[in-house]
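Box 4.2: Ligand-aware structure prediction
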Amino acid sequence: MQAPPSLIATDYDAFRRQFAAERLVVLYYLGLIANPVFFATDVLLHREHLSSLLGLRAIIELGLAICFVILKRRPALVSPNSLLVLWVLIGNLCIAQMTVVLGGFTAQYYSGLNLVFLGAAVIVPVSWPSHLAAQLGTLAYYYGANFLHAPTPAGLNAAIENSLFLVWTCVPVLFSVFLYERLQRAEFEARQSERRIRQELEASNRQLLELDRLKSEFFANISHELRTPLTLSLGAFKGLLKSSPAPECEQLIQSGMRNTSRLLFLINELLDLAKFDSGRAELRKRCFDLALLVRSVAANFESSHTRRIHFKGLDQPVAAEADPRQMKKVLYNLLSNAFKFSDPDEGQIWIRLSAKEDRVDLELEDNGIGIPPDQLERIFDRFTQVEGSATRRYEGSGIGLALVKEIVTHHGGTIAVESTLGRGSTFTITLPRGGASPDKMVALEEDDTITFPAFRESGQERDRPATVSPAPSDDRPLVLVADDNTDMRGYVELMLSRQFRTALARDGAEALDQARTLRPDLILTDIMMPRMSGYDLLKAVRQDPALRSIPVILLTARAGTEARVESLDAGANDYIAKPFDEEELLARVSNLIRARDQDRELIRLQKEKMARFLPPHLAEMIIAGDRDEFLKGHRTEITVLFIDLRGFTTFAETAEPEVLIAILREYQTDMGRVISDFGGTLERFSGDAMMIFFNDPVPIPDHAERAVRMALAMRDRFADLRAGWSKRGIDLGAGIGIATGYASMGVIGFEGRQDYAAIGPVTNLAARLCSEAQHGHILVSGRLWQLVDPLVLADSVGDLTLKGFQRPVPAYNVTGLRPLKEN
Ligand code: ADP
């Protein structure tokens, strides 16, 4: 940070004063010495004026001596600038007076003035105004005093000549003082800001070191604080196990124990790292059998008949000089990674140990997922996990390999990794042999044992089929739980089992298979899982039309808004962060299942309602939301049928409203059934009229024929209705008009109120034919008649003049179907 200019200037002024004071001491010494020395010149050259000159020299010496004493003893009394001016004036006024004594302007002593100017500027090169003041004072006295003594013409010439030398001494002197001071000021400011930056850096460095120390201290304290309750919990679990608990409780206790020791292990690793950082880590090296130690650590990892650890070079003792406890940590970390990142059923691990003259090589190879080449260097860094979708499936802290590297390096060894993506990885550790030899080997002590959390992923565990409990006859909703952590699965199952049936899956792929066969009511899935992550499972469920509507809840250890948004964006219905409590889990699951039931009920009702007027597959299509593709605007050939009642206007004027509506309902219900049976699309009811079309949105190749058949069925159905009505004294008839032609089809209306509409002359024609039709008539257009002629019996009614049509339109009245000809 740069100091404000004013502050720098004040500081510089102080510095300059001090500089001037120091230099003035030198200047005064010089004056005090030079003055008597020049007296020698007076003796040699001007014996005749010796007494006057001696007097003047005495004044100089006395003046200088007084100022010098003030400078040394009372520096605060007179400022350095004044002392500088005094030095010049004491010397130069006396020298000027000497020139008067020695004959005026022609006296050579005037060059003494220049000498004094130069001496002052060279030794005290600051404060040019003081130099200027002293120079002006000198020149004024020199010229004043010498002119007072009426100079001769030669003297005047000398005055002019001398003034040239005097002025040309003063100007460069002033100029050089001015430049020197500027330079000095710039240098001073640069030095000041450099010093300030250095001070700031040092301060923040000290602060960082202090923070780091506090962090390490806090970290060590908190880790100790955490270890105590965890150790006590572990003890309590062990005690409980000994008290022969019921089998369900035993499972819970086992799970509690496993997870507590996992946490304890993690904290110990963090503490180890902190110790290495603070330099407090101590290695307790001794010579022991490394082969034995490797086998004992490998025994923590359960193998199955397909998943195995293969040993090479471990059947005879291999002497190594190392800290056995630390080496166990190294092996445990490498082995658990090899297990974690290879196939749970098929993964293979090879451990090779070989002793060379000066070193021991330990190689650990797996055929797992491998590491991308650009990440190989990074995996030994703290808290680093390989990035990419594959690893998001594996839990971990990212400190294992960092600790491994610290331990190996502290042993003077090296660790290297080679890996091929998708093929596997090989970690090679080289330890210096040190003084190890078979005859020096000692047995491992009690102290060297450390407990590792058992690595749970045994074949036995994986072979256990996912459970559906209780019996499928139970009609409680089924929740599918996917989590790779056995304990978490068990815990969630226990919580849910009070209200739901549960099915369990160990990863996304297994969950997808189960979802396809079991069709659960809800899926509750972890995000990070091997083989298929929760996100991938979610994607697969949403892409499968049969599973799409199943609600999915993501269960994850990542808390925070970002993770929540990411989950909901991915299409999850809900998101639960671990740790969660039983009530929250049950409430969320129940809510989603209830909402889904309500949705299903709504859809069922919609379907039922639509199926009254639409063919079932069309209703299905509309509800499934696939209609957009079909229903967007397009042009197609359709057959349009119009039906409306004869005598309805008169009836409507006289009938009671309830009767009127009841009659309309009866008519529409019966006609609606016929329409549905024939797969017609009912565009709308409009009072007593109905408009139905065929061949859109569901294609119907024989649409004209279908329409005519439906019209005949309507006529028959209507005959029954009419018979019933006439008993109640109601006389209503119905006429039908049908036409075939092209129309523009699509959804019209606005959000919340939409209709599927057919727009074109064909609808107009059908409507006009309908209004021309008397009761019992089915009037069809010429084009339609051509299409259905081989099938139906129809009489020509001649050319009709219809509103909206310029030319008369030929029309036919369909009376029935032609009897089938026997071939
Ligand atoms: P953690 O396993 O807890 O994530 P580590 O420090 O042990 O942390 O490992 C760091 C990362 O290195 C792992 O997250 C993983 O991405 C990668 N890694 C380590 N060992 C293997 C392995 N055998 N195969 C594939 N990747 C590995």
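In the box above, the bound molecule is adenosine-5'-diphosphate. Residues 635 and 716 are 33 Å apart (CA to CA).
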